[in-house]
Every structure is written in C-alpha cells, then in structure tokens.
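so the lab meeting is tmrw and i was supposed to have these ready like two days ago... anyway. pasting both below. for each one the top line is the aa sequence and the line under it is the structure tokens. i havent really looked at them closely yet so no promises
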Amino acid sequence: MRENFVKLYDVLADGQINPQYYNWERLEEI
C-alpha cells in the first residue's frame, strides 16, 4: 500500500497525474 501512495505522490510532484489511472477510491481498495 505504501508503494502505491509513494508512486501517486511521485506522479503528483511531476504534475502528470491521470484521474482515470490514479483513483483515490481504488488506492483505498488496494
């Protein structure tokens, strides 16, 4: 779970986040 969040934050920092690919709800499910 931590790895997923780290990747998400990494993408957010890059400014190339895709809401369809990175879903907060999906991350919670994982």
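ok protien two:
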Amino acid sequence: MSDENESIASNKSVDTFVKDINKRLSLPTDLHLPESFISKQLESPEFMGPLSRASRRQSLSEIGFGRTETYIKLYVLGQGTYATVFKGKSRLTDNLVALKEIRLEHEEGAPCTAIREVSLLKELRHANIVTLHDIIHTEKSLTLVFEYLDKDLKQFMDESGGSLHLNNVKLFLFQLLRGLAYCHRRRILHRDLKPQNLLINEKGELKLGDFGLARAKSVPTRTYSNEVVTLWYRPPDVLLGSTQYSTQIDMWSVGCIFYEMVNGRPLFPGSSVEDQLKLIFSVLGTPARDCWPHLEIPYSFPKYVRESLSSKVPRLDRTAVDLLERFLCYDARKRISAVDAMHHPYFEDLGPEVLTLSDDESIFSLPSVQFFHFYPKYNMSKH
C-alpha cells in the first residue's frame, strides 16, 4: 500500500474511533477532541472495554470537561444574590454557552437550589428543556454550563410589542407542554414557571429553564413549601398555604402564561398574596368555603361572580378558550394535565406527527410546523 493510501486508511480509522468515543461518552457530535486525548486513547486498549464510572470521569476531564479554562466568558447576562450568568463560548465546540456561576459561601456551601438544579438537569434530556452541558466545581464557585438561547419569553414578548402572533402562541404553548409532560412523567415539578424562565432561540424553539425550585416528587402525599412560583403565576390553593400539591401546580402557571402570550399582559398581576387572590376571584368568581376544606382563608372577599374568560381573550376562539379554562381550575385535581392538554383539539392543526416525536426531536423537524418570523414593531393585534 502506498503512503498516500495508508494515510487515507489511517484517517478513516481515526474518524471511526472518534465517532466511537463520542458515542461511548455521550458527547455532542460537534465536539473538537484534543489530539493529545485521541493519541492517548488510540494507544490504550483498555478504552475499548466496558467503561467504569471512574474511567469515564477521567476521560471527560482529559477532554476538558469540568475545567474553567475550557470556557471563555464574554459578558454578563444577569446577576442575582448568589449567582452571575455570563454569555460564554466553549473551546471544545466553538458554540455559545450560558455560564451560571454560583458563589459558594464557606459557611453554607452550595445553595440548595443549585444542588437541586444540578441533580435534576443531569437526568433530563429533552428538546424542550435547556441542556446542562457541564459542571465546574472549584473552591469558590460552582459553574453550570448551559446551552445558550437568545432570549426568554418575556424579552420576546416585549420585543414583539406585547401580544404574539396566534400561530406562535400555539407553538410556544405546545413546546411548553411537551417539556412539562416529560418532567411530570418523571414526577418532577418545575414550581417556578413564568415567562422569564422559558428560553427561546432564533428557530422559535422554547425550552424550560431555571430548575432551581424544581422538586422530584416520588410520593404523591408528600408536602412541599408553598413559597414557590412567582406570585402572578401561583395557584390560589398554594397562595392559601396548601403544601399537598402535585404536578397540577405547574398547569395553573401554564394557563397564566397562555393568557399573557395572547394579550401581552399578565392575567393576575397581584402586589401581595391578598391582592393576588382578589384579582383571581374577581375574574373566576369567589369560591365557596368548601372548595378547599383543608385550608383556612384568612381574608374576607366580596362575592365576585365568575366572568366569561372569552371576554378576556377576544382573539381566541371557543376551542382555545376551553383549553385556557381547563388550566385555570380552582380544584387542582380537575386541572388538565400536560399530556392531555397536548391532545386538546386546539392543537389539531399541528398534525398528529407532533405527538409521536422522540424526546430529542424538535417540533420544527416537521415541515408542517412553521414559526412566524416578523419585525418587532409589527402590530399583532389582529392576527
């Protein structure tokens, strides 16, 4: 064999080997493996055998995972009490990433919200859930490396002049339900759904983010904190102190977000728990005392009569209003589930194929599903 043919054969064998490494370590296909790592593995027959957890961890470290120097910080995207989020770039893929750097207090260690977010996101792989690519743990910080998305739903609505095109409302809502259905099948409650925690890229793909308050709920009767979900998106039973909730807590939030995408403003923008309940009751009617027999209602409210939700969302047809009403039920047990909502007639025009996609497939992989791109100043009120 000539030197040229040997070189071609060698390149093919290396390419095959790299693909095998990517598959065995569950690495992204666009990852640039360091040449030193490839050379070492080619010379190591042990790699071809079954991978132990320790050897897998060592291989990932040698590639560059878990190392601060693997990522370039570009600029700050946001800052909170315990964490700063940077827009960054991965040296391994050249892709943009979001770096959530959590400061560690020596007295307290990692915040429980960070530990919870890591433990849950490590197990979640879905087209409509933000991907956690890497975790970097140093003495002073814990950095979570996420896929980068351009903006959140709140920013998207603001740039669109408020209300969204009804086609895009439907696509965003379906993707939100897909991500939630995946979580709920695994008994994971998000518990903090709001437009700021729903991330969107330029394709129109929506992904659930910020799982800091999420919980894995393995026992249906277990009690949880009622100090969850931003006030405007919190169901009334939780506002009144209920801790015996399940996946239905997220479905009320979905209803509030659905309304907000259609009308361009929050449905119940309360300033306190009492004000929040008053706003809810003024629209959905004051509930009877036996609506929540296990809860005390420490406030006194007028006897509000239920309004027709169709008058609040004139852009929606009767089918869409029916779905909205099914999200906003006082009785948590009667709220529609994420899976049942995906099968609601409101989504019929998306076609049956959207219900058979694998977890890692985007709805935009279907030619029949089209996102409407538009100029931010475009008036959506009649569409």
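from a quick look at the 2nd one: The mean pLDDT is 80. The two ends are 67 Å apart (CA to CA). will dig more after coffe
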